[in-house]
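Submission sheet (multi-component)
Chains listed below:
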Amino acid sequence: MVRTRFAPSPTGNMHIGNLRTALFEYLIAKNSNGTFVLRIEDTDQNRYVESAMDIIFDTLRITGLNYDEGPGVGGNYGPYIQSERKDHYMPYAKELIEKGKAYYCFCSKDMPEGQQKYNRHCANLNQNEIDSKLATSEPFVIRQLIPEGKTTFCDEVFGSITIDHEEIEDQILIKSDGMPTYNFANVIDDHTMAITHVVRGSEYLTSTPKYNLLYESFGWDVPVYVHLPLMLNEQGEKLSKRRGDASFQELLDQGHLPEAVINYIAFLGWSSPDNREYFTLAELVEAFAIKNISKSPSLFDSKKLAWMNGEHIKRLPEDVFYDMALPVLQSAVHTPGINLKDVSKMVQSRILFVKDIPELVDFIDKLPNYDVDLFINKKMKTDAAIALQSLESIIPIFNDISIENWNNRTLYEVAIECGKSLSLKNSQMLWPIRTALSGKPSSPCGASELCALLGKEETLKRMDIGINKLKAL
RNA sequence: GGCCCGUUGGUCAAACGGCUAAGACACGGCCCUUUCACGGCUGAGAUAAGGGUUCGAUUCCCUUACGGGUCACCA
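Outcome: structure written.
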């Protein structure tokens, strides 16, 4: 049974690097019908940010990375907030002291001048010295005694890695405030919560031997390690909260759909063998495999994310998209009688973001003061004379169409027929109409649809304006 | 600086040691089309450098360069 955990610390925003870690942990668990656990690692009370906890909960909820065990859900191994189980860790630390794998250290927090590394001074204290210091309540920490030698471990992504213990300091397990350090709490919790796959960023690669030494000291099995490649910002720098690199919330504010963000970041450091790129979360669960995770760091590309967002918008059911777009449509279109549902359908396949809608539909409320040159289009083989001919011929025909018959299909048919009688190509007939109605080089739909959308009166009015512009030429 | 990891087009990336090194985004062109977009086709663009092993190296080994990570009573 695979069990993974997402173990964020509540210190601020969740940037997309954190999110990707959560995603991969979720995918690894769910791909084999395993369990995904949320554990809040808040052992550093100085860095604690109150709102951060909610950000974590909200992000997981919005993205659909639902955890099976964790705060509010329960399970057999809880609680899942480390500060609430503070007393849980000390007995393990004492066990290590008894085994000679750790020791009390009474050195002050500040290193003596000129000393870069801890010199293991307190490892050599005799029992009487230790007892008397403890008896007088001298502040202490508990340090792990790193033995001589080397540790080799196997990572699922990076392969076999060997680190000499000379590179590792006697790290602190229990801080002077009684709290465990991350390094210690992490190992204890991962073991007691029966985590099988430890998934985390590759910045932990070099400290992994410390964890293994702890597992070995307790006689516990080491978990499977899956270290993820780094994610860098668009400048190739490490993602950081301080620099304001894309946080999930920011991407949402910019108009990205949660599912598009998830889809995009799944492809940062992972790829699907079948070349497919559009994935729902459920499809990712199905397709994900650890062996397809890559080692090299990847840059965040907002252009591709934008494209991905468009892909997800296109595939949204019409009514879902309509509900989403409605507030924007309402604020962008005020003309009475306009069917916003129609407008919604027109724009759905043409935008990357919902916020792109207003500039697409601004011509509805008010015809732009466009340049008459817009009528002249080489590709459409249309010049001013043809444009004038098209508009002047169609006006009386449109005029005869009753309001009941004023629909796209009818309008299109009569326009084409009119064009034929004038020996005009479809594009020559329709381009001037489209231009006169939108006053823009591009519009979310073609000529007849525009006419149907704007209504008879407005259509005739705008064509008149076009004619006047052309005559003034 | 020590140690660890990485390096395939601008970006994401694929390729048991074996065709002419996939595909996607972005960019250019063409087609389709009732404009633009969508869609289809297509173009340009890459194995960091040097050595070795091999019949054959993007792939394995070494060196160099560059990039990153890590060396906390932070996680």
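Remark: Chain A has 18 helices and eleven strands.
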